[in-house]
């Protein structure tokens, strides 16, 4: 890792070493604290809190609140997510699970009919809405691990909502993509991101959201009961009901977030900490890295066609296992230890040859698990490439990485006008087959690929915090960023901006259309791959921080990276 000895945040700009097209690498360096997020204004909101003496949790909640304002289309109070937290005081890592869950009205067959599929009940409107957990997760983190009040950390977000921010042209595209459903499920004149004639606002528009500012002030004054047991919750239930769904105040009042033990793995001596189910992400990041550990990735080199092939085959096997074995562990027994086993990974690596396997059979991780073997019909819903992720490191040594979502960009397309936020469509992450263990049931949490991950170095010190949006590509994005740093010695932003590959089935190798290496792709085609060039957004939008320790291991220097595939920015001081 490269280090710039400076007291202020500096930017290092270099040519990306990995592809066609001028993708800039912009590493940011700082001594004291840093936030890397999907929008610069959100990162600045977090840093503002750090500079006022707040810790990483305080800054994380401030960042998340600001993202609700400036990236309203991707995450926020109407959704849910996961957080991974390293405490410098205890040297422990914990995970917070505030994933949305199905309301009491959910049934296994609610999305199985032809009408449900034709009218996309799971994706849009009230039937698609899961019980939001975001606010309960954020306030739990603040009250138990933070040092500031909600009112204090909400100040930057309230200011952004009241004074406004200048929108980016990309946001118009996200709104335009859901223009029909936004009009279908909302009354004219109620959407702040539509102009006076009912069209999506143009990029460069000053967008003010006074209703959202009012909501944050109300929560600061009355606490989260105003959301889960009071007037905001009542407005959510009305919005769900008027758009064809059913959610009750009991659903909201009964929602529980959970403090969970992280998934723990190792990769070449580095310790990997990530989220357990209801997210499958952490388990499968560890599984994928375990398989890749059987190969000398460093010697193969970043542009190696063999490395890309092996990674693609390992990815396909991992997703075959995810489809067959992974579920909400409150509803099914899952071979978590087996899936994360080094012995199982060696067995899986032994199945990889030079051949491109169309759809690998799932392995048998139960052989490497101590739990009683069970079987069930798996299956997954249809995760999308929205969502938002951020990382925070404070001046006290604490680290946070958090991934949050309302599922689709623009969520369910249902807006709560009185309080200024979109509601999630997380029910779309359930399987539509009522026989699947991942079919909807009251209180069940749908599977996710969200993987907010913290990596400790072989000496047990923070090495990296990393996370990404992008549905199934989250797992491969996080794994590739870790490999890029550990195996190829890349800086944080180099690791993030490097070309990523995703091969979930067959011979279709997907990568971005703006940073590929032509010689590498030509070689992959000769091997039998069909190259599919995607918009950069497809492979995620990773945000991360790396830690460079001095020779004595007593002081650190922060290296932030933020993904140009989104509007990412790292800000430090």
From TrEMBL:
Residues annotated as binding L-glutamate: 99, 405-407, 429, 471
Signal peptide: 1-22
Active site residues of this protein: 387 (nucleophile)
Gene3D superfamilies referenced in this protein's UniProt entry, alphabetically: 1.10.246.130, 3.60.20.40
Pathway: Sulfur metabolism; glutathione metabolism
Keyword Acyltransferase in record: yes
Keywords: Acyltransferase, Glutathione biosynthesis, Hydrolase, Signal, Transferase, Zymogen
Modifications after synthesis and translation: Cleaved by autocatalysis into a large and a small subunit.
GO terms classed as biological process: glutathione biosynthetic process; glutathione catabolic process
UniProt entry tagged with the keyword Cell wall biogenesis/degradation: no
Catalyzed reactions: an N-terminal (5-L-glutamyl)-[peptide] + an alpha-amino acid = 5-L-glutamyl amino acid + an N-terminal L-alpha-aminoacyl-[peptide]; glutathione + H2O = L-cysteinylglycine + L-glutamate; an S-substituted glutathione + H2O = an S-substituted L-cysteinylglycine + L-glutamate
Pfam families to which the protein is assigned, alphabetical: G_glu_transpept
Molecular function per GO: glutathione hydrolase activity; leukotriene C4 gamma-glutamyl transferase activity
E.C. numbers: 2.3.2.2, 3.4.19.13
Oligomer and partners: This enzyme consists of two polypeptide chains, which are synthesized in precursor form from a single polypeptide.
PANTHER family (alphabetical): GLUTATHIONE HYDROLASE (PTHR43199), GLUTATHIONE HYDROLASE PROENZYME (PTHR43199:SF1)
Family: Belongs to the gamma-glutamyltransferase family.
Protein's UniProt name: Glutathione hydrolase proenzyme
Gene: ggt
């Amino acid at each position: 890792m490269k280090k710039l000895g400076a007291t202020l945040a500096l930017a290092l700009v270099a040519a990306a070493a990995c592809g066609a097209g001028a993708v800039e690498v912009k590493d940011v360096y700082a001594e004291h604290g840093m936030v890397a997020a999907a929008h610069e204004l959100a990162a600045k909101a977090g840093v503002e809190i750090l500079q006022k003496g707040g810790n990483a949790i305080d800054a994380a909640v401030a960042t998340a609140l600001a993202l609700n304002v400036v990236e309203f289309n991707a995450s926020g109070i109407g959704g849910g997510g996961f957080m991974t937290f390293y405490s410098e005081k205890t040297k422990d890592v914990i995970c917070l699970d505030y994933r949305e869950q199905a309301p009491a009205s959910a049934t296994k067959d609610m999305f199985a009919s032809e009408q449900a599929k034709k009218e996309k009940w799971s994706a849009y409107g009230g039937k698609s809405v899961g019980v939001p957990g975001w606010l309960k997760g954020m306030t739990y983190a603040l009250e138990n691990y933070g040092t500031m009040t909600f009112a204090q950390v909400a100040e930057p977000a309230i200011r952004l909502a009241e004074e406004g921010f200048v929108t980016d042209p990309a946001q118009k595209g996200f709104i335009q993509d859901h223009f029909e459903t936004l009009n279908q499920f909302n009354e004219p004149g109620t959407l702040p991101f539509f102009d006076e004639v009912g069209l999506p606002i143009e990029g460069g528009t000053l967008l003010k959201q006074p209703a959202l500012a009012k909501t944050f002030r109300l929560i600061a004054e009355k606490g989260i009961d105003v959301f889960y047991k009071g007037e905001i919750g009542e407005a959510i239930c009305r919005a769900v009901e008027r758009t064809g769904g059913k959610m009750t105040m009991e659903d909201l009042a009964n929602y529980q977030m959970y403090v969970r033990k992280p998934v723990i793995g190792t990769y070449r001596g580095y310790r990997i900490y990530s989220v357990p189910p209801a997210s499958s992400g952490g388990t499968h990041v560890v599984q994928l890295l375990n398989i890749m550990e059987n190969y000398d990735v460093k010697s193969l080199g970043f542009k190696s066609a063999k490395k890309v092939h092996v990674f693609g085959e390992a990815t396909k096997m991992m997703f075959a296992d995810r489809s067959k074995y992974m579920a909400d562990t409150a509803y099914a027994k899952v071979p978590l230890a087996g899936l994360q086993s080094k012995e199982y990974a060696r067995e899986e690596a032994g199945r990889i040859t030079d051949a491109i396997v169309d759809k690998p059979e799932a392995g048998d991780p139960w052989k490497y698990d101590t739990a009683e073997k069970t079987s069930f019909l798996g299956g997954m819903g249809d995760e999308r490439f929205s969502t938002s992720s951020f990382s925070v490191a404070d001046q006290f040594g604490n680290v946070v990485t958090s991934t949050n979502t309302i599922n689709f960009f623009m969520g369910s397309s249902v807006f709560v006008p009185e309080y200024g936020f979109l509601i999630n469509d997380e029910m779309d992450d359930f399987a539509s087959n009522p026989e699947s263990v991942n079919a909807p049931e009251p209180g069940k949490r749908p599977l996710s690929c969200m993987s907010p991950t913290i990596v400790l170095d072989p000496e047990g010190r923070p090495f990296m915090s990393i996370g990404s949006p992008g549905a199934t590509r989250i797992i491969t994005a996080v794994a590739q960023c870790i490999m890029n740093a550990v195996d190829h010695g890349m800086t944080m932003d180099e690791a993030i901006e490097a070309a990523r590959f995703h091969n979930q089935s067959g011979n279709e190798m997907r990568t971005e259309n703006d940073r590929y290496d032509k010689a590498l792709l030509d070689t992959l085609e000769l091997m039998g791959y069909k190259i599919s060039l995607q918009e950069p957004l497809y492979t995620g939008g990773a945000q991360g921080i790396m830690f460079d320790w001095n020779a004595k291991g007593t002081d650190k220097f922060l290296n932030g990276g933020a993904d140009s595939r989104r509007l990412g920015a790292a800000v430090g001081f």
